[in-house]
C-alpha cells in the first residue's frame, strides 16, 4: 500500500512540475527567473528540463509550498481577469505600485519565499479574501 501511495505522490509531483513549466511559459518568465521563483540555484538549469519532461519536483517542503503558492497566484489572476487571459499572464511581468514599481516576478526573485507570500497575499486581498 505504501509503495502505491509513494508512486501516486510522485506522479502528482510530476504533473505539478509540468504545470509550473506551462505557467512559466504563459508568464514569459526567463530561465533565471524560473529558477529563482522555484528557489533553485542558477546553476541548476537541468532541473527545468527535467520538470518539463514530467520528472517530479522535489518532495521537500520548500519545493511543494513554492509550487502551491505559484499555482495559487495563477488561480487568483485567472479569477481576477476571467475575460482577459493576456492581462492575467502579463500581470506577473508588469510594474506594480504595490511593489514599489517592481514586477511580481522581481519581488519573488528578490525576496524568495517571502516574496511569493507578498505577491499571493496581495492577490488574495484584491480578490477580497
Helix amount, in percent?
55-70%
Number of helices: 7
What is the count of β-strands? 0
Major sheet description: none
Content of β-strand: under 5%
Low-confidence region ranges: 1-5
Mean pLDDT: 91
Order of helices and strands: HHHHHHH
- Tell me the span between the first and last alpha carbons: 39 Å
Give your account of this protein's structure:
This protein is mostly helical. It has one domain (2-126). Helices cover 69% and strands 0% of the residues. The chain has helices at 2-27, 31-37, 45-52, 61-80, 85-90, 104-111, 113-126. The radius of gyration is 15 Å and the shape is globular. Residues 1-5 have low confidence and may be disordered.
Amino acid at each position: 500500500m505504501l509503495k502505491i501511495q509513494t508512486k501516486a505522490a510522485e506522479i502528482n509531483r510530476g504533473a505539478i512540475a509540468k504545470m509550473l513549466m506551462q505557467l512559466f511559459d504563459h508568464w514569459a518568465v526567463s530561465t533565471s527567473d524560473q529558477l529563482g521563483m522555484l528557489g533553485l540555484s542558477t546553476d541548476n538549469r537541468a532541473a527545468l528540463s527535467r520538470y518539463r519532461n514530467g520528472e517530479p519536483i522535489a518532495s521537500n517542503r520548500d519545493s511543494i509550498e513554492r509550487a502551491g503558492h505559484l499555482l495559487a497566484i495563477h488561480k487568483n489572476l485567472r479569477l481576477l481577469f476571467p475575460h482577459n487571459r493576456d492581462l492575467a499572464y502579463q500581470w506577473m511581468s508588469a510594474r506594480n505600485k504595490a511593489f514599489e514599481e517592481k514586477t511580481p516576478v522581481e519581488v519573488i526573485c528578490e525576496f524568495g519565499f517571502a516574496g511569493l507570500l507578498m505577491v499571493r497575499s496581495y492577490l488574495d486581498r484584491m480578490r477580497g479574501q
